[in-house]
Amino acid sequence: DGGITQSPKYLFRKEGQNVTLSCEQNLNHDAMYWYRQDPGQGLRLIYYSQIVNDFQKGDIAEGYSVSREKKESFPLTVTSAQKNPTAFYLCASLVGNTIYFGEGSWLTVV
Amino acid sequence: DQQVKQNSPSLSVQEGRISILNCDYTNSMFDYFLWYKKYPAEGPTFLISISSIKDKNEDGRFTVFLNKSAKHLSLHIVPSQPGDSAVYFCAVQTSGTYKYIFGTGTRLKVLA
pLDDT tens digits, residue range A62-73? Predict the structure, then answer.
């Protein structure tokens, strides 16, 4: 079964805790992305990575961190510095000129 | 400052009629344009795309039009079906980069 796998689907955390969202792809895609969706604000780019061991900040990188140690994995850490972390997080990868998304992860901070 | 705008947050059309979703952008350096469909609590699904060297691309019921001089992109769905009810996002790629920027989305409701 191929594709982009995000886990967990739903995650609850207490305020002030760091949390890591997993994104794995077995499609051999080089570029991977993290987006955040809030109601009425569309999809906003957090970080993207073109190749292993390289990544760039997107438009809303503050309070987030990523790593790209393996081609198939691009985990996102939501740190306690992120002021409003409750959102729907989407991981994606690129083939040709088209981005394909995973199923998303809901993070709720209470 | 939003570089990609979808000015209509919602749209309702009757089943069988045409749905027209619009997207405006500000940067002439964008050179690849895409449309996605999204259901609640799911990842967006790619629908159709167009390169800046074209002005039209068609795939079944979906047609994308690009007007570069107006910096305007539209998606036509004909005929509209109830299953098309979803949120539609346009996206643009900045030339020479891997960066993709999305619009805020338009919620389409197709009435049976």
Answer: 999 999 999 999
